[in-house]
Design goal:
This protein has a 5-stranded mixed sheet with strand order 3-9-8-5-6. The chain has a 4-stranded antiparallel sheet with strand order 2-1-4-7. The protein has about 150 residues and is α+β, with helices and mostly antiparallel strands. The protein contains 2 helices and 9 strands.
Length: about 150
């Protein structure tokens, strides 16, 4: 009996360490912002802002000006209020901004015409960036750097 108590007393810390190791090995972070960018209804990429991923590139093609860039942004599962998509140059100047009505729960996508974005790129603005802002994220967040291909 005494030996059983001793084994339990010595083994308990090992069991606790094993349980803690298992629980802390999962790195899922609940909540947080996320966004998806589509080009003509095809998912280009999805990013969870809680992960420290770098800014991705969105390639637009001059030969397909009739397309649409569609953005879905989620604030911890909620659609933002007073939403805007902005195209900025390298210096951070706003070149064009689209404003979107508050979501009715069904229509939360924000769409911009590719030809409008293509028209902003020139020798003065060789590199463009796509930004999102809302009442919840008033300073805005860069979602992608835009690359324009001449295919």
């Amino acid at each position: 009996m005494e030996q059983t108590k001793r084994i339990i007393r010595l083994g308990m810390p090992l069991v606790l360490v094993a349980i803690c190791s298992i629980l802390f090995s999962f790195s899922a972070i609940m909540g947080g912002d996320s966004f998806e960018i589509y080009l003509n209804n095809w998912l280009v990429f999805q990013q969870f802002v809680t992960r420290q991923e770098g800014v991705r590139f969105l390639q637009l093609d001059r030969s397909l000006p009739d397309g649409q860039v569609i953005i879905n942004y989620s604030h911890c599962g909620q659609t933002g209020k007073s939403r805007a998509i902005t195209i900025r140059d390298l210096k951070g100047h706003s070149l064009k901004e689209w404003h979107f009505p508050d979501s009715d729960g069904v229509n939360k996508s924000m769409a911009c015409n590719v030809k409008d974005i293509l028209g902003l790129q020139n020798s003065d603005n060789p590199a463009l960036s796509l930004f999102y802002s809302s009442r919840e994220l008033h300073n805005g967040r860069q979602l992608a750097s835009i690359i324009i291909a001449d295919h």
